[in-house]
Each structure stands twice: as structure tokens, then as C-alpha cells.
Amino acid sequence: MSNTSMVNFRMNQDLKRDMELVCKDLGMSLTTAFTIFATKVSREKRIPFELALDPFYSDINIARLRMAIEDGRIGKNMNVHELIEVDDND
Fold first, then answer.
1. Which residue stretches of 12-83 are H helix?
2. Handedness of CA 20, 22, 23, 24 (dihedral sign)
3. Would you write out the chain's pLDDT as a tens digit for each of its 90 residues?
4. Inter-residue contact 56 to 49 (CB < 8 Å)
5. What is the residue range of 36's domain?
6. How many domains does the chain have?
7. Whether the predicted model's global pTM rises above the 0.70 cut
8. Which of 80, 58, 57, 76 is nearest to 68 (CA)?
9. Is residue 49 domain-resident?
10. Is position 63 within any domain?
11. 28: CB partners within 8 A, 6+ apart
């Protein structure tokens, strides 16, 4: 018997189902997929994909969006912009 440990964690039901389907299409189980991930993290000493925060959701941008929404509600700072036609055939 190999030296294995049980790992338990919670995951959204839909996410788990979707991942199981992808793993099945790839011919592997969830256990195999997570073992591949853990092996890569262990060897490379990093998460094996880019992690980044979307700047759109920064506190500053969200505050600006809320102000713009409020301005729109009261008709403040409303500007008229001309549309720019773009030729999609290029």
C-alpha cells in the first residue's frame, strides 16, 4: 500500500460537477487532477498559473462607478459623445 493521506475540502457543487466532467473527458479522476496540481506546486514552489486581481474591481474604480451611477440618477455630469464608426472588415 502506498503512503497516501486523505484530503477533504469544500467546493461549490456546480464547480465540482463541471470539473469532474472535464477530468472525465481527459481520462482522469478529480484525485488525479489534484495530485497533478499538488505535484507541480511542490516541484516549482509556486502556483502553476497566473493569479491576478482584475483592476476593474479595485476599490477606487468601484467608487468611481458608484459616483457615475449616482450622477446619472440626478442628471449631473452628463456628456454627449459622438459614436465612432468602426469597419469590422479590417
1. 13-25, 30-44, 59-74
2. positive
3. 578 899 999 999 999 999 999 999 999 999 999 999 999 999 999 999 888 878 888 889 999 999 999 988 888 887 777 777 877 775
4. no
5. 13-44
6. 1
7. no
8. 76
9. no
10. no
11. 36
